[in-house]
Amino acid sequence: MADNFFGITDVGKMRDNNEDRFIAQHILQKRYVLACVIDGVGGYEGGEIASALAHDSIINYLQKPHDDVVESLKHALIEANEKIIAGKQNNDVTSEMACVITLAVADVEENKFYYAHVGDTRLYLLRDNSLVKVTKDHSFVGFLEDNGRLSEEEAMTHPKRNEINKALGFNEQDFSQPDYIETGESPFLPGDILLLCSDGLSDMLNNKSITFILTSNKNLKEKGKALIKAANDAGGKDNITAVLVKNDKLQLMHEATKPVAIKKNETKELFEKIETADAITKTPVEKPRQKSPGFLIFICLVLLALVGWFVYKDYLKQPPKPKAVMPLPPQKIINADEQKLVNNLSRQKDIFLAQVINVQPLIFNDSVFIDRDSVHIHGNGSTIVADSSYNSVGFIFSENCKYILIDSLTLQNFNVAIIAKNNALHLKDVQFKNCKIAVQHEIVSNDKTVSGKFTDSLSSSKKDSVKIKYK
């Protein structure tokens, strides 16, 4: 396996020092790839010190094996936060220091990645030439952008863009809150690329520009350098850092088989067999002569007369009986709000329910089928409830879906809240209320070998299931 990760940082065009740090290395006997971007905050020297403390603390903590990957990432940030706060004591230079951070661990062998995040550094996932922002920006402007109140261009130029409300080093009390650290896990498929970056990159380059560079035919090192150059060409207003990780496993492909060649002698023998068989089928067979045709003709005429009499008596003479008509099943009509959601899902990748739907809760009276390659449903605390006359399935994601992220949403009163036909589903802050099955994985198999591993966080509650269908 070739080198599948690369990290790079640059001071930019308008700063004298670099407060950014990054990690890009193997850990635990090369079992995982550890990737991290840290952006220091708090003055000329304080930001550099904070990012250095976090950098060293995280490497030391994650060099040791842990049972739960996500929990280990979370505790690594907690420990780094404690070290920064301890370093602020009785020191005027470092009294305001802090840092924002995005931390990821890629498990290429199992096709998974895990992450923990605080602040406005970012984690992106590139899959099939489509770029998805996985993490949220913990800032007021980031909140407005994630909720669709600001466009990407408006957020990039907003005067309060860099005012953050979460960071390592702010205080221990807030950091202990269960939702302070944003965590998650997701499939990491062959060909996928993770990009972790500081706001010095994301404030200079929009999604389209980043996607253009990441989908080029360059290797990871060249792509990383191209991202830095593009950010500097756009202004280079801050330190710029990028870390790239690629799942460089080859996708499984069926080998094309050549037609079987028939040799010249075999061709001659084949035609001889065909001609012999054809001659056999054309050989006339002499039928035995009928000894008494008159008697057989008489019997046939009698039978025909009897059949004709019964047809006349039981069918032509009787009025025809009315045919039974099978009533058509009543057509289910999707309500206007659900139809509005369906229409939006067919047109765009990022859906903000607060913008699409004006009512709460949103009522489903039929399942919503999604066949996009990727989609991000921002629930913003919304609730979707099954209609009292319909409680079957909420969302159905087809096998064509490559990356689905559902965020901050409650699904209620469904027999099955979500059906996923592959392992592309990623849930973040999703609640299931009064649902018999939360997530049901259906693998549709046409006599093919099925491989994979489903590790939903819901498995401990016994509300997920796996079903294999054969065609």
**Principal-axis shape:** elongated
> So what's the CATH class of the largest domain?
Alpha Beta
CATH topology of the largest domain, by name, is Phosphatase 2c, domain 1
- Whole-number average pLDDT? 81
SS summary, helix count? 12
Q: Report the end-to-end length measured between terminal Cα atoms.
A: 36 Å
Sheet with the most strands: spatial strand order? 1-10-9-6-7
Please indicate the percent range of residues in DSSP E strands (runs of 2 or more): 25-35%
- Count of distinct strands: 20
Helix fraction, binned, reads 25-40%
The CATH architecture classification of the largest domain is: 4-Layer Sandwich
Unreliably modeled segments: 253-264, 273-291, 320-331, 455-463
Largest sheet entry: 5 strands, antiparallel
Using only C-alpha atoms, the radius of gyration works out to 33 Å
Summed up, the domain count is 2
Q: Care to describe what's here?
A:
With 471 residues, the chain is α/β, with parallel strands linked by helices. The protein has two domains: 5-246, 4-Layer Sandwich (Phosphatase 2c, domain 1); 338-470, no CATH class. It is 29% helix and 29% strand. It is built from twelve helices and 20 strands. It has helices at residues 46-62, 69-88, 140-146, 152-156, 172-175, 199-202, 207-214, 220-233, 264-282, 293-316, 336-347, 353-356; strands at 5-10, 20-27, 32-41, 98-107, 112-118, 122-127, 130-133, 182-187, 193-197, 240-246, 350-352, 362-364, 368-370, 374-386, 393-397, 403-412, 416-420, 425-433, 437-445, 464-470. The chain has a five-stranded antiparallel β-sheet with strand order 1-10-9-6-7. Strands 2-3-4-5-8 form a five-stranded antiparallel β-sheet, covered by helices on one side. Helix 1 runs antiparallel to helix 2 (69-88). The longest helix has 24 residues, at 293-316. It is elongated, with a radius of gyration of 33 Å. The model is unreliable at 253-264, 273-291, 320-331 and 455-463 (pLDDT under 50).
